[in-house]
Design brief:
single chain, 325 residues, alpha+beta, Phosphorylase Kinase, domain 1, Aminoglycoside 3'-phosphotransferase, Chain: A, domain 2, 2 domains, five-stranded antiparallel sheet, 9 helices, 44% helix, 17% strand
Length: 325
């Protein structure tokens, strides 16, 4: 990190020095790092930096090194910076996110200085979840969706999620011909034309949730693909990220009932006035549509992905049958 950014971190945290740095992870395709810094001379013991440096040559794990991919990543970091500076403070304890201390951008690098969620009481990361863990994350999503119900995604992605059709023509072209490829535009249209729109996290996989030590609370990170959309996009992506095919089959109805109960309560808490029955019916009908929309992306991006299974194929058949009615 150059001296300008080091000084920026010290100023934004009111620290006199950085005593140590630890790389938590590298960013996708080598676009920078997430770094924890230990601080001296301030009430904050530490902070987490999302340090973005545009690479001279990107290396995509799946080989999708295109100008379109590069442009999408650049925009995603600009969106995330805008999210933390201008939107994140609207999130309360029920959809906890890291506090943003400051953010700045230069020509080919930028940094977001964030609260260290480990130090704030969310030290656990998980790769799979039991029922209670899934429900914690669904509750977070429900409260997030309620908080931003009807919001216009100014400065964010007009359509949230990293896989939506408009930004993935290369993956669509790579798909084998068939009913799902033919249905791609209509799936996208159905989701985009929902009467009830909110902000979606856009990358709500289990890896992007931080759990408290007692497993009773959760916070979320990584808002590169936050934007407008139907809340079911986040729900299906979460479930697919942390549950097996068998768990999806067995727990589907219970987990959807829980999400909608939490959403109803959250809307009441946030004083959102709307037709609850209409919202629930619309979004519930989007469950198979949203799952199939992500399946469409996978078929072009990575054949053989573990999420391509009989459960996914069953939902896709239901969704396509619904479109053909």
């Amino acid at each position: 990190m150059n001296k300008h950014f080091q000084d920026f971190v010290l100023h934004s945290t009111r620290a006199s020095a950085i005593s140590s740095q630890h790389v938590i992870q590298t960013l996708w395709s080598g676009y920078g790092e997430v770094v924890r810094v230990e601080l001296v001379g301030t009430d904050l013991s530490s902070a987490v930096l999302k340090y973005i440096v545009l690479p001279s040559e990107a290396v995509h794990p799946r080989g999708w090194n295109t100008d379109r991919s590069h442009a999408r990543k650049i925009k995603s970091y600009a969106v995330e910076m805008h999210w933390y500076r201008d939107w994140s403070e609207r999130c309360g304890q029920r959809c906890r996110v890291a506090q943003c201390y400051a953010a700045t951008a230069a020509v080919d690098e930028s940094v977001i200085v964030l609260e260290d969620l480990n130090a704030a009481g969310f030290p656990q990361r998980k790769s799979d979840l039991d029922r209670q863990g899934v429900k914690l994350c669904l509750s977070w999503l429900a409260n997030f969706h309620a908080t931003f119900m009807g919001a216009r995604p100014e400065g964010l992605w007009q359509t949230g999620t990293y896989w939506h059709l408009e930004t993935r023509p290369d993956e669509l072209a790579a798909m084998a011909e068939g009913d799902l490829k033919k249905a791609a535009a209509e799936l996208d249209k159905r989701l985009n034309n929902c009467c009830y729109q909110t902000l979606v996290h856009g990358d709500a996989k289990v890896d992007n949730f931080c759990f408290s030590a007692d497993n009773r609370a959760v916070a979320a990170v990584d808002f590169q693909y936050v934007g407008g959309g139907c809340g079911m996009k986040d729900v299906v992506y979460l479930l697919g990220s942390c549950l097996s095919e068998q768990q999806c089959e067995q727990w589907q109805d219970e987990l959807l009932d829980y999400y909608f109960a939490e959403l109803k309560q959250a809307l009441e808490i946030t004083n959102k006035i709307l037709d609850w029955g209409q919202l629930k019916a619309e979004w519930l009908a989007m469950y198979a549509i949203a799952w199939t929309d992500f399946y469409r992306f996978l078929l072009g991006w990575m054949l053989g992905h573990r999420k391509i299974n009989l459960y996914t194929e069953r939902l896709a058949a239901e969704a396509i049958a619904e479109l053909n009615k």
